[in-house]
TrEMBL record:
SUPFAM superfamilies: Ribosomal protein L6. GO terms for biological process: cytoplasmic translation. Belongs to the universal ribosomal protein uL6 family. It comes from Alkalidesulfovibrio alkalitolerans DSM 16529. Pfam families: Ribosomal_L6. One of its GO terms (molecular function) is rRNA binding. Residues 12-82, 90-163 form the Large ribosomal subunit protein uL6 alpha-beta domain. The keyword Hydrolase does not apply. This is Large ribosomal subunit protein uL6. Part of the 50S ribosomal subunit.
Amino acid sequence: MSRIGKNHIDLPSGVEVRVGIDTIEIKGPKGALITPRHEKIAYEIEGSTVRLTRVDESRAAREQHGLRRTLLANCVEGVTKGYQKELEVVGVGYKLQVQGASVVLSVGYSHPVNFPLPKGIEAKAEGNKLTIMGIDKQLVGEVAAQIRRVRPPEPFKGKGIKYAGEQIRRKAGKSGGKK
C-alpha cells in the first residue's frame, strides 16, 4: 500500500471538490483548479474528507496512487493558502521592477529583460527580492525557474538571480600569475 496514497485529504471549510469523468475540479476561497483524473484510481468524498483507493493492484494503479493523492492535496492547499517562491537578485547595479503583469529585470545585459507573467501568477518586488505568488504549485515553481534562468548565479562572485536561501557553491578565482 502506498504510504502517501492511503492518507485521506481533509477539506477545509469553503473548499468544494467535484469529481468528473476525466478531471477533478477544486473550488476554494482563492480560486479554482482542475487536475486530471486517472482511471485506475477511485475517488470517494465523505463529508469533509477525500479518500483515494486503487481499482486493482496493477503496476499502473500502484504508480498513480500516491501521485494522484499528492496532486489533489496540492490543489486543495493552493485554493486555500496559495503558494509562493522568493527570488533574490545579487549584483552591483542589478535591479528588478514589477510593471503591471510583467517583471522587468536589469541584470547586466545591454537591455532590460521584460518577463511577462502568465495568467494566475502575481509578483511583488521589495528591494532586491522578488516574490512569485499563485494557487497552482507547478506554475509558481515553473515561473520562478524561468525567471532564474534569465541570469543564473555564477560561481565566482555569486552574481545573478537565485532562490531565497539557496547556497551557491563558490569557486576560487585565478591564483597568481606567471613570474
